[in-house]
Amino acid sequence: MDLPVDEEDGSFTNISLADDPDRRSGRLSSKAERARSTMMNADMDAVEAENQVELEEKTRLINQVLELQHTLEDLSARVDAVKEENLKLKSENQVLGQYIENLMSASSVFQTTDTKSKRK
User: Which residues form the signal peptide (predicted)?
Assistant: First the structure.
């Protein structure tokens, strides 16, 4: 569309576009723009909702990992305690075994007898 030029100063003249068909399509594109904006807002809301779900899932997983770490620490401490108790019991068993051997060697009931000397 050619704009009329003012011959005197070379500037453009304002023309009313009220009846211009292109202007009416501008109104339509404004409606389309609003519809597009509404769709974008809906998309953004959906993305925000998805992000919220992801954030909640991450938080849940982090809490689960922390709980499992605490459980592992507790189990590790328990294993260490059991190992220590096991070593203590082995030591006590050795002491008791030695004590029993000493009692048996001191008792005449458990002395080995020579069968040849009894027959004579």
Answer: none
